[in-house]
Structures are given as C-alpha cells and as structure tokens.
Write a structure and sequence with these properties.
The chain is an alpha+beta fold and 444 residues long. It has nine helices and 25 strands. It folds into two domains: 211 residues, PmbA/TldD fold (2-Layer Sandwich), CATH 3.30.2290; 225 residues, no CATH class. The strands form four sheets. Strands 8, 9, 16, 17, 18, 19, 20, 21, 22 and 25 form a ten-stranded mixed beta sheet that branches. Strands 1, 2, 3, 4, 5, 6 and 7 form a seven-stranded mixed beta sheet that branches.
C-alpha cells in the first residue's frame, strides 16, 4: 500500500481545481466460520485509492490497481469530473490535521486458536440446549485496516486499526416451527475484545431467549394498534438510538419530524467516535476531520451529523464516510446516555405493559419518521411482573412520540457492533421505558 509520502508526490501534480485529496485504504480480512459439521476459513485482501476534486462541481474517481498509470488516470478522471460538471458543492473550512495513530492490538487472530475457541462456544451452546434440535453457526472475523489521506489544504494523516467480531446464529426446530436468534459482540482490537466478554452469560441469554420464544403465545390482533407502556432491553433501545441518529444525518434530515419537540430532561443521545476499543471509533473521518463527541439529542437541542459537504458555517463536520463515492454523513458509536433507574424500579412502576428483548428487525421511514421494531421475543408485564412470552408483535410509532414519551432510563450500557451503509458503527443504550408506544400485530 502507498505511504503518504508517495501519495503527496501524486497530489503535487494536481492542477486547475480549487481542492483535491487522495485517500487510501488497505484491508485484510480473515474469517473463520463454524457450522454444525464444517469449518471454513477465508483470507481476503483489498486495497483502494480514491481521488476527490472540487472546482465547478465535485468529482470522484477510484481504483484498486496500484500501478503509477492507474493512479494518475484516476486523479485525471476526478479532475475532469470536477471541472466539467456545474454544481454548487462547497466544503466548509476546517483546520488541516497532521499525524498518525495505530489503535492497539494485543492478540492477533490465529486460525488454529480460533477454531478451538469456536468449538468451545458451540459445545457450550449444545449442552445448554439439551434435546432441542438445533443448528449453530459461528462466524469469527478479524480485519486489519490501514488508511491514509493527504489534501491540497495540507492535511496529512494516517490511521491503522483492527476489528474483531464474533457472530453466533442459533436455529432451533420446535413444535411451533423454526426459530432463530443471533448475538454479535466485538470491537476494535484483536481476540482480546472477544475473550474479555462474558461468553457464558451471552450463551445463557441466547438459549433462554430461544426457549421462551418456543413457548410464546401470539400477540392478539385485537390489541393491534393500541398504546402500551413499553420497556426495551439494551439491544432494542440501542437499535432505537441508531434509527434516531439515522434521521439526524444531514442528508436524511426532515426538520418537521423534529420540530418543537418536548424532549425529557433525562434523554441524551450521543455520537462519540473517541471511545477506546469501540467498533465505530476513529481519530479522523474520511475527509480528514478529527472525530469528536457530539450531543445529537438533549433537552431543547437537536444536532445533525455532517460532512464538509453538508455542513455550513457554524456546523461541526467530522462524520464523513466514503472513499469511492461522495462522502456521506453517518454515525460512529451512537448511544443513549445512562441515568439512574434499575429494571426493578421500571417494573414496579408498570402495572400493565410489554417488555421487548432483542431485535429481529428495526427500520425507520426517513420521510415520515415512523419506526418499526420487531423484538426477538416480548413479554407481558402484569401487576409489576414479567409474565408470559408473546410473539408476532412489533413496536410501530413515530420518532417524535417515542422520544417524547421516554420516562425512565437505566444505569448500564453496552455497545453492539453494527454496519450502517457498509461502514463500521456501534449502538447501545441502557434499558428504557416508553410511556405510551403503539404496538401492532406482526406476521414474522
């Protein structure tokens, strides 16, 4: 992969545009998959060089071929696009950045050790499931990244990091049909990001969820459309945080959805790329802007995620993603800040409601702001206690109502790896309670 000194030599040849940059990305991914009866190991390497230029318009070109001619042709294409297309694109001013950072990795993935580790996880799951007919698929991925960026404004930054993630998929045949659930953990770093997790608790949770799902009764269609007091577990609440952040990406923002909100004092939604070891963390975004913690939602405040293209004077860029396409604003590590409620206190204050655990599907309509969230399993709350499990239920309500009706936020939070538009992110939240959210019957 080209180093930044070599890239600078190419950039020095750029003429006739107001702005230009060259961005490099090298990636090597090792993936180990364990199914019931086979192992599969793959090792893939990829590299890309992208050039962006701004003049009359914004031009972008990229290549995965590293020869001098290919690189010079790519730069020429970006300049041609920028000088031939008419537009109103402009970049908000930023301070040029310089430096390099290597995120720490304590233990690189070893395929043989990974296989032993994954078989232990599989055997633990099978032991806990007992006689239930099941299929377990475990995927362990380790990816090394190296990035570089130089710009005509003087930015010169390099960043390298690794990510490790473990995905466990469990499928069980029951009398009521085939049930599936999954769990994903991981972060920036090596195998230490997985090994320091409480795997036994994760497996207990997976197997408990699948057993409860097997015995769940259907949510009554007669109750569909009614509002309930809802408690979301940390995974479901984290998905809600992600959907709200998605609506706050500057290129997706609809002001009417967030107009004149009455946000509870306790509610605070954060985007923070500077959390050590988190999956979505970075020092510099794909435009070379230093990432900083942003309060997206708080009492009386709604802020957007910006790139240099979407930001105006007074806005804060730093959430740009994209090398071979126009940089788009996206989240890094997004979460709901903790408060001081215990789950028992939330239940004590709930005579009748629904407790939703996990996420099968979570989507938001960017135009209307309507959220649909289908949990892995849900439970009836009756007289302050979690009782029978139910299925075929989904939360369906507006972002406005859901945010304004949050009346309790828990104490503990964990971040779950995810991808948004193909980019690494993470999401998290403590348990939250919503005092009046619409639910509907769902055909899963």
């Amino acid at each position: 992969m080209l180093d930044n000194d070599s890239i600078m030599k190419y950039l020095a040849k750029v003429r006739g545009v107001k702005y230009a940059d060259i961005r490099t990305l090298g990636k090597n991914c090792i993936e180990v998959k364990l199914s019931n009866d086979y192992f599969q190991v793959s090792d893939n390497e990829d590299q890309i060089i992208g050039c962006r230029a701004l003049d009359k318009g914004y031009g972008i070109a990229s290549t995965n071929k590293m020869g001098e001619k290919h690189i010079e042709d790519t730069i020429g294409q970006a300049i041609d696009h920028a000088t031939s297309i008419s537009g109103n694109a402009s970049l908000v001013g930023v301070r040029p950045e310089h430096g390099s950072y290597e995120h720490p990795v304590r233990k690189k993935l070893n395929a043989a050790d990974a296989q032993d580790f994954m078989m232990r996880v599989r055997d633990m799951m099978k032991e806990k499931l007992g006689s239930l007919t099941n299929r377990v698929e475990i995927v362990l991925s380790y990816t090394e990244f190296g990035t570089g960026l130089v710009t005509s404004e003087g930015t010169d930054v390099r960043e390298s990091f690794s990510t490790t993630d473990l995905a466990v998929h469990l499928t069980v045949k029951t009398q009521s049909g085939v049930l599936s659930t999954k769990k994903i953990i991981g972060g920036k770093g090596g195998m230490e990001t997985i090994e320091r997790k409480d795997l036994e608790s994760m497996i207990d949770e997976l197997t408990k969820t699948i057993r409860n799902s097997a015995g769940a009764k259907q949510f009554s269609p007669l109750e569909s459309g009614k509002k309930f007091r809802i408690i979301l577990d940390s995974e479901a609440a984290g998905a809600l945080a992600r959907l709200i952040a998605y609506m706050l990406q500057a290129d997706e923002f609809k002001s009417q959805v967030f107009h004149a909100l009455s946000i509870p004092n306790e509610l605070e939604i954060i985007d923070n790329p500077s959390i050590p070891g988190a999956y979505g963390s970075f020092v510099w975004d794909d435009e070379g802007v230093r990432g900083r913690k942003k309060v997206l939602v708080s009492n009386g405040t709604v802020n957007l995620l910006h790139t240099r293209l979407t930001a105006k004077e007074g806005d804060s860029p730093g959430n740009a993603y994209g090398i071979s396409q126009v940089p788009r604003p996206s989240m890094s590590n997004v979460y709901i800040s903790t408060s001081d409620w215990h789950l028992d206190e939330m239940l004590e204050d709930t005579k009748h409601g629904i407790f939703m655990k996990g996420v099968n599907r979570a989507e938001v309509n960017p135009t209307s702001g309507i959220v649909e969230l289908e949990p892995v399993v849900a439970y009836i709350i009756e007289q302050k206690e979690i009782t029978e499990a139910i299925k075929n239920i989904k939360l369906i309500d507006s972002v406005r109502n859901l945010m304004q009706k949050i009346d309790a936020i828990g104490k503990l939070i964990s971040l779950i790896p995810n991808t948004e538009k193909g980019f690494r992110t993470s999401e998290g939240a403590p348990y939250i309670r919503i005092d009046g959210a619409r639910c509907a019957y769902s055909v899963m």
